[in-house]
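Bump. Still looking for UDP-N-acetylmuramoyl-tripeptide--D-alanyl-D-alanine ligase structure tokens.
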Amino acid sequence: MTIPEIYQLFLQYPSVQTDTRKLKEGDIFFALKGEHFNGNEFAKKALEAGAAYAIIDEPAYRENDRMIVVDNVLTCLQQLALHHRRQFRIPILAITGSNGKTTTKELIHEVLATTYRTYTTVGNLNNHIGIPLTLLRIQPDADMAVVEMGANHQKEIAGYCTYTEPTHGLITNLGKAHLEGFGGVEGVRKGKGELFDYLRAHEATAFVMWDDEHLRRMSQGIETVIRYGTKEGDVVGTAVPDPEGQREFLQVQVTRGSAIGLVSTQLVGDYNAPNVLAAVAVGKCFGVPDDAIKKAIESYQPENSRSQLIRRDGMHIILDAYNANPTSMRAAIENFKQLKVDNKYLFLGAMAELGEESIVEHQGIIDLIGSGNWKAVVLVGGDFGKITHPYIQLQNSMEAHEWLKQQDLKDAYLLIKGSRSMQMEKVL
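Sorry for the wait, here they are.
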């Protein structure tokens, strides 16, 4: 069966699922394969659970006409997403970067949704499976879409662009993330830069953080460049200083490109200021009124362990534990250092996917910790445990949870951060 023929089935049953545990009646089940599973084995179960059709790529599993055999299920899913995407003549904004992708995506979605019917990546579905699923969720009433793209090796973003075909793109930053897969910092720049390469080749539009000389250089030759930053650009603004070190949430003063003035966010950390400016720049590009931009950003409440402030049992907890790399870890610690309060505790989980740079980067974090004033520092797992240091070293987040339970930390301030694999949210 061809992609156009499968698309006709999709129009009748416009809901796709790859996990039988989440299956709803009328879904089309795509039997994907992984390192430790074979979705073909679950095709019969999916139909019994109410799936309209099952797309498989091993003929031996086909038992009836509702099992459709293709050459490769993943390729079929991606090609179907491309076919669906091409039914729309709407702006599609792709977002990638080392840090802040999801927060930036959420802020931009909140801004655009005040004025347009906007579809966006749900949660963190930003890979070779999640992106096609995001595209297939776009409904006929769409005015625009925002698609997050994550990557840990070169050629990945380029591949995503072939079936997303973005009209606009934004790279949040270029940091020390997934160094092992990208092959170092230069590999990160090249890999993330594949988005700008696509925009350049297709006369598209880039939103560029103009403070970053690498992003400035990488954006050369792109048809339309919209600049934002703290010094110059189409939209200019800065994080408002807090000399007293008592303010918990980020404030941004926009001084050019918009009349919104002071924006009081519910985000923790000055490192989120570029994400706010990106949302302002995108909003202005698409004609969102200033008052709507301001209200959308100020109303946004982070979740899923990203720059969250939680008050519990007398503790003030900054939970930024969805992920971590040397760049984001340093930014979080530096921001926490500026908070002029007593009883500050650090709970830091090890960083993953750093390859041969891992020990050096973990040592760098330990050195940075030494420049602060902490009541206690708890380091959890990974390469922190391979370095001699004077801090509390625990094996995993559950040990850290047990340590926390034994303390009386009323009026204490906690920063909790670590790579996804460390599951540092379990400390709470």
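The mean pLDDT is 93.

Edit: fixed formatting.
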